[in-house]
Amino acid sequence: MNKPIRILGIDPAIRKMGYGIVESNGDSVQLISYGVINGNGNDQVRRLRQLYDGLFEIVQKYVPEQVAMESVIFVQNRKTAIDMGAARGVALLLFSLKDLPVFEYSPRTVKIAATGRGSARKEQVSFMVRAILSLNYSPPADAADALAVALAHVHNLWNVRKGYDFIS
Description:
It is a single chain. By secondary structure, this protein is α/β, with parallel strands linked by helices. It contains 5 helices and 5 strands. It has helices at residues 44-62, 78-97, 107-115, 122-132, 141-161; strands at 5-11, 16-24, 29-38, 66-70, 102-105. A hairpin with a 4-residue loop joins strand 2 (16-24) and strand 3 (29-38). Helix content is 48%, strand content 21%. The chain has a 5-stranded mixed beta sheet with strand order 3-2-1-4-5.
């Protein structure tokens, strides 16, 4: 049996940042926790502080060893892109300060790992997260996305252990 590794999955956003924590021993994966960190109000700086504080608390409580984060997607709205970049920056700063390695996965890679299809809809990804983790219910959408990112990283680690290339 391999030493278990705890992975924090992140679905970055400034208003609702999803997180999901799983643990894998190389043969199985177990759900530890999940949720959404809310960035409330209209003040961007205040929302970013709320995200930082929420992530800090999660890292302190669950002590992940690696972080898997969904990479930036193409967005047409400039304000959305700026907000997304700011939220990612806050998360990346915290992970850097905590010396946590961060692995980034494209939305397509996450969907393929969860469902086998890169064009899967959010509902399909959520359904597979529920099935893989043997849940009786579906987590909130942002948390389900974060769990899917964490599961994509677990899948990648399993493949690397079998001698395949690391995919991001």
